[in-house]
Each structure stands twice: as C-alpha cells, then as structure tokens.
Specification:
The protein has 130 residues and is mostly helical. The protein has one domain. Helix 1 crosses helix 4.
Length: 130
C-alpha cells in the first residue's frame, strides 16, 4: 500500500508543479501573485481530489486508518516539497513561505494541505471502498 501511495503522491506532485507553472503563466499577470496563489489553492485541491478519486481503488485502502496513513504520508512529502522548492528553487524567505499558510496574511495553503491529508479518506468513502 505504501509503495502505491508514494507512486500516487509522485503523480500529485508532478500535477501540482505543472499546475503552479500554469497558474503563474495564466493568472499572475491578470490578478496578481497573491490572488493567483489563493485561486490556485482551490484549483489545486480539486486536482488532488480528482487524482485521489481516480486512484483510490488501486491504493487498496482497507480501513480509515489506511486512508489517514496515506494522507499523512502525502502531507509530509508535500510539505517537504513546498519548503524545498520555495527555499532552493525560488529562494523564498522563511517569512514568505510561512505567509502562504497564514490566514491573516491571505495565505490559504493550509486549506490545501488539509484537503491533501483528507483526500484518500474522502476518495475511498466517496467510491464506497470504506
């Protein structure tokens, strides 16, 4: 199950990177970076839910604990990817990275991470697998 979960996370990660590239290319100039990132949380969350729904049977989750374990794995990996990309690729400061998660500063990424955490459970329940 974990090997399959890692494979699906890799699909999600690639999809999210491409999603981010498209967001910057298509939205940033029109609505600004901050608003584009906010919109991106919702479209990215939808993307994650679709991937989770499509792959739920293949993941072979048998229990709620299985689904939450996969969600925690995905969350940890994605947080690591966010920090690595932010710091190493985009040279973002820690303050800038934290702002994406801070509701007071308009950051909605914590909502996206919550969706990522719950996506396997929601997909498995939605497909009648649990």
């Amino acid at each position: 199950m974990i090997g399959r979960a890692l494979a699906v996370w890799l699909v999600i990660a690639v999809a999210e990177v491409l999603h981010g590239i498209l967001r910057v290319a298509l939205l940033n100039r029109r609505v600004g970076d901050r608003r584009a990132r906010q919109i991106g949380v919702f479209s990215g969350s939808a993307l994650i839910l679709v991937i989770a729904w499509l792959t739920a049977p293949w993941l072979r989750m048998a229990t709620v604990a299985d689904a939450l374990t996969i969600g925690l794995l995905w969350l940890g990996l994605m947080l690591g990817l966010e920090v690595a990309f932010g710091r190493l690729v985009f040279r973002a400061s820690w303050r800038r990275l934290a702002a994406d998660f801070d509701f007071r500063q308009g950051g909605l990424l914590s909502l996206g991470m919550l969706v990522l955490l719950l996506a396997p459970l929601l997909a498995a329940k939605g497909r009648g697998l649990l």
